[in-house]
Amino acid sequence: MIEKITSATNARVKRLISLRKKAKLRKQEQVFLLEGERLFTDTPRAFIREIYVTEEYLKDRPEASMPAGCTILTEEIMRKVSDTETPQGVMCVAQMPSYQKEDLLGRSAKAEAGKAPLLLILENIQDPGNLGTMMRTAEAAGVTGVLLSKDTVDLFNPKTVRATMSAIFRVPFLYTDDLTGAIRSLRDEYGMQVYAAHLDASIPYDQADCTGPCAFLIGNEGNGLTDEAANAASSRVHIPMEGQIESLNAAMAAGILMFEASRQRRHGGM
């Protein structure tokens, strides 16, 4: 028998709303919300802690086909706890994945043997959709890990999670309190070429050698990189543009850079 919640004042409903709205609570509990059929089916079952569905969602799915422990929410309550205008009828509370530096560098037991590390380093990215798109694109381009400054938007924001298309479970990531120190460590201790996306004193991105261990450093959507972060990089690159456009969307720029590295690695050089 599946439990059903019909009251919006139910403690579990209030907690779901808080998990949607409050990054602090998500961090304290080390869990976050997943919404929709695609994220539900793509998420490794080991990470799922709670499942909430509507009766409409269950119509074409016999109870026996659902994992044990599901809870039914009324359509009205699902709309209250959902971050989308038209909920798909399924929501999960999932455990946050956790990674170490070795995972980002491709040195864990799960890493692909012989693959040179390729990192995306993000400073103060503020748009949840941008961050989620970068994570999704990072997986597609073969990035081994993503390093984020502590002031970057919460990766477990519901909008970010949706935009990742489940890459959040497959692309290792770490937040750091000292981004500049981390960049210097990657450069000096691990021999990594760190390319800062920057308009000043930079070379075209397709002239940078990305076949060895390397990373791309992307800054805030409105202000770009801080001088401190840019100066810690090995060198600077830019994307040549025509017309009167001065800059690209941060996620678009990151995608171009990541796929240039992917292209070079497929073809063995620039």
Please characterize this protein's 3D structure.
The mean pLDDT is 93. The protein is built from 11 helices and 12 strands. It has a 7-stranded parallel sheet, with helices on both faces. Helix 7 packs parallel to helix 8 and helix 7 packs parallel to helix 11. The protein has 270 residues and is α/β, with parallel strands linked by helices. The protein starts with a strand and ends with a helix. The chain is elongated and about 65 Å long.
What is the C-alpha radius of gyration, as a whole number of Å?
A: 21 Å
The average pLDDT value, as a whole number, equals 93
Helix content bin: 25-40%
Biggest sheet architecture: 7 strands, parallel
Tell me the number of strands. 12
SSE series: EHHEHEHEHEHEHEHEHEEEHEH
Strand order of the largest sheet: 8-7-6-11-9-12-10
User: What structural class do helix, strand and pairing data support?
Assistant: alpha/beta
Percent of residues in beta strands: 15-25%
| Gross morphology | elongated
Q: Distance between termini? A: 61 Å
Number of helices: 11
Q: Uncertain spans, ≥5 residues at pLDDT below 50?
A: none
